[in-house]
Amino acid sequence: MLILGIETTCDETAVAVVDDRRDIRAHVLLSQLDDHRPYGGVVPEIAARAHLDHLDGLVARAMEEAKISFDDLDAVAASAGPGLIGGVMVGLMTAKALALAAHKPLVAVNHLEAHALTARLTNDVVFPFLLLLVSGGHCQILIVRGVGEYELLGETIDDAVGEAFDKVAKMIGLPYPGGPELEKLLPQANETAAATIDLPRPLVGRKNCDFSFAGLKTATRHWIGGRDLSAQEKADFALAFHHTVSDILLDRLARALQERDVAELKTLVVAGGVAANRFLCARLKTFCDARGLNFVAPPVRLCTDNAAMVAWAGLEKFRLGQIDDLDVAARPRWPLAMEKAS
Ligand code: KG4
Ligand code: ZN
Q: Residues with Cβ within 6 A of ligand 1?
């Protein structure tokens, strides 16, 4: 079984082909980072135009890399949301055109579900599993019971965790995207100096599993206090920030496990762009080891946005007969689970 996947929800234009033996037969990706960097964030209009300019060429390259023709495909999948609507429409319309021209079924994939199911492409993860979804737009703890079956345990009440990384990084003078830039400073950081930087841990200890990161921006602004930071101070701050964010995420996960049957959930999967963070993954691994849980983090190139995850989610849906009509709509918002379990 061969599925073509297309990803255009944010600032990566990506196309991939995967098969049902979990081989990634083609994986092409064009990052628009340089286009957006001068603005300190993603500009939707620029993103949509860049997807439009490059997507057809990337589809051709992926087909070449996989050494297949459109006839060989079983289905065409695309992220149909959530995301920046202009970009989503470019990817979904291209997928519809390919599906129509090649007489193949279309699978509209939820971008968050694609992140969530990546662990099943890279590792032998069975349902149900506990999922920490941490990206530029989302921060959620979910139980994944099956394809399309998600139970929301907790989510951010303000900023997403990737957004918090990006915003504080910008405040200390680092380029976009801030997550990887802050992580790069860690080897230079001084643990003792970092421990003196006092950052809040909102909602830690609370009874539910929700997150809050907005207070970190204000605390960062106070800590900077309008001065010019030295390279050493920036590195020490980066370490303090990593500790704080990891403490918050771990506290909320511990809470989720208190509420739920740990015996039922044998694996914790981390997914989304922030899952590329090695510091966080090391903390999560220790957390899981102490509780007898398996820990799975996909390789970095499959944590941040890519099309292999979309093709794989498309394959999982296609296998279950979940295909879509050609009039399926692009969705700026598309939650994985509508309501928090009581
Ligand atoms: O999943 P993703 O590629 O796009 C969205 O769907 O949002 O996530 C992008 C986010 C950005 O906020 C970026 O700063 C963050 O993931 N990120 C990281 C790292 N790599 C990417 N955050 C922390 N550490 C990293 N190494
Ligand atoms: Zn994403």
A: 10, 135-137, 162, 165-166, 177-180, 183, 272-274, 276-277, 304-305
Strand locations in the chain (E):
2-7, 12-19, 24-31, 75-81, 106-110, 129-134, 139-146, 149-155, 267-271, 294-296
Please name which of 114, 122, 28 lies closest in space to residue 77, comparing C-alpha atoms.
114
Ligand 1 probe mutation, 135, 176, 249, most atoms within 8 A of CB: 135
Cis peptide before 335 (omega within 30 of 0): no
**Nearest ligand by distance to the CA of 42:** 1
pLDDT tens for the 342 residues of the chain, in order: 999 999 999 999 999 999 999 999 999 999 998 899 888 889 999 999 999 999 999 999 999 999 999 999 999 999 999 999 999 999 999 999 999 999 999 999 999 999 999 999 999 999 999 999 999 999 999 999 999 999 999 999 999 999 999 999 999 999 999 999 999 999 999 999 999 999 999 999 888 999 999 999 999 999 999 999 999 999 999 999 999 999 999 999 999 999 877 778 999 999 999 999 999 999 999 999 999 999 999 999 999 999 999 999 999 999 999 999 999 999 999 999 966 554
Task: Give the Å distance between the CA of 22 and the centre of ligand 2.
Answer: 20
- Spatial distance between the Cα atoms of 20 and 43, rounded to a whole number of angstroms: 36
The two three-digit tokens of residue 76, written as one number: 């065409």
Judge whether 88 and 9 are in contact, CB under 8 Å: yes
Domains along the chain with CATH numbers: 2-116+302-318 (3.30.420.40), 127-297 (3.30.420.40)
What is the Cα–Cα distance from 209 to 141, expressed in whole angstroms?
8
**Ligand 1 atom having least distance to the Cα of 178:** 14
The answer, as to whether pTM is greater than 0.85, is yes
Atom of ligand 1 nearest to the CA of 163: 12
Please give the number of the atom of ligand 1 that sits closest to the Cα of 305: 3
The Å distance, Cα 98 to ligand 2 centre, comes to 23
